[in-house]
Specification:
This protein is an all-alpha fold. The chain contains 8 helices and no strands. The termini are far apart. Belongs to the sigma-70 factor family. ECF subfamily. One of its GO terms (molecular function) is DNA binding.
Length: 171
């Protein structure tokens, strides 16, 4: 990358961060549920992006490239602090369809927190960050069909979780 091209990328990156900082914070916060940790993740993500700017092949992919960094940094943080337990799809389905309720009034946020990280990431990126399926696939480094399948499964799990709560609330 030439000096002029690098300078141009740096300016684009800086304005991109300024214009979208609230989105990055919200995304990190959706994983860690702590404002200070979310700010640290965003700051760490920006640092990682600056250090690896040369790996960005096409400036048009800046958005998905940086979202991937934020998601991965958030997941790394959770693993490091052991605040997430990864469960397989069968376990998640069993938990979601269980008749016992551990919450008084479940809401969408709590239901999302019950999802395995690979499902939660898709829901957050697709609906809260308003990314297209192709962008979500790019951010998560998966193929589009895998993302579609997981999105369908995640929505189904959320529906089961939320419907159980609605039914219990009506009794």
């Amino acid at each position: 990358m030439g000096k002029k091209s690098r300078c141009n990328h740096d300016e684009l990156f800086t304005s991109f961060i300024r214009e979208n900082k609230e989105n990055f914070y919200r995304l990190a916060y959706s994983y860690v549920k702590n404002s200070e940790d979310a700010l640290d993740i965003v700051q760490d993500s920006i640092h990682k992006a600056i250090v690896s700017m040369d790996s960005l092949q096409d400036i048009k992919t800046l958005k998905s490239w940086f979202y991937r960094i934020v998601v991965n940094t958030s997941l790394d943080f959770l693993r490091k602090h052991k605040r997430v337990s990864i469960v397989d799809a069968e376990t998640m389905e069993f938990i979601s369809s269980g008749s016992e309720d551990h919450y008084e009034d479940i809401d969408l946020e709590r239901a999302l927190d019950q999802l395995a990280p690979e499902y939660k990431s898709i829901i957050v990126l697709r609906f809260f960050e308003d990314l297209k399926i192709e962008e979500v696939a790019d951010v998560l480094n998966e193929n589009v069909n895998t993302i579609k399948t997981r999105l369908y499964k995640a929505l189904k799990l959320l529906r089961v979780e939320l419907n159980d709560e609605i039914i219990k609330g009506a009794n």
